[in-house]
Amino acid sequence: MTENATFANDSANPPIVAGADGSEISYQAVAWAAMEAESLGAPLHIITSFGIVTVLESRTALGAGEMAALRAEGQRVLSEAAEIARHAAPGGKLSVTTELTFDLITPTLLDRSNHARMLVVGNRGRGAIRQALLGSVSTALSRHAHCPVAVVHGVARPGADAETAPVVVGVDGTPNSLPAVELAFAEASRRKVPLVAVRAWSDSSGFDLPVVGWDVIRETEDILLERGLAGYSERYPDVHVDRYIACDTPARALLEHAEGAQLLVVGSHGRSGFTGTVLGSVSTALLHTAPCPVIVVRQP
User: Fold this and answer.
1) Which member of 62, 97, 167, 225 has the lowest number of beta carbons within 10 Å of its beta carbon?
2) Residue 157 lies inside a defined structural domain of this protein
3) Rounded distance, CA 67 to CA 73, Å?
């Protein structure tokens, strides 16, 4: 059951879809989504859910007064979120639509991802998305959405250098990481900031033990990384790229560089350069621990 369903299936200019639940972190996610949408010239669609995870007929058990109260609360959340979006993108050109649904939030967002440019949620939440912590929602979306998923954290980068901080991307050398690399280059180019490409290498003995021949390994891995980025560097000549080869676990290597970044981009899964580690587990860990927004890009 959906109300105010103004979601536009525009394949020429698909919207960015942001989930709001009345919590502060979800409103920060909406603000981030609004700035991203304005920068891309895309519309913004804000959705909130009062879906109840109980028995199938639970909705009919709610009285008219209870439904009216839920509806009023949902409209309040959407009104506040829309106001925050317009304040975050004050140019007056951002198109904002809203949607209140009584269906469960995760399957609803997954359905919207078929026709969205990006999904944006907070890394945790409360309120309208009551029946599942937003952390579990963001994890499910990052694994199953049909478009990139941005997860915004409550920790904001302070200081005047926030807008000049780099974009960081995890590169594992497999085709699964290529969509993430391409999106990271596009984001860095649009934001006019450097791109930090991180390739992690850790042997089976563990990152706390010395790796025999590490200098040779690092040189070889750096050559492979440079070759993997060459085509994108030609397409985005304005983006300065810093390459880093880390003898560490992927999660630790990416978190280290995310400390000084404004955005972290990773693939949803992969192997190779992230030796012995499925990137799905890495991206899931980063969703909840990175100090900056994280975009997870799935292989189409």
Assistant:
1) 62
2) no
3) 10
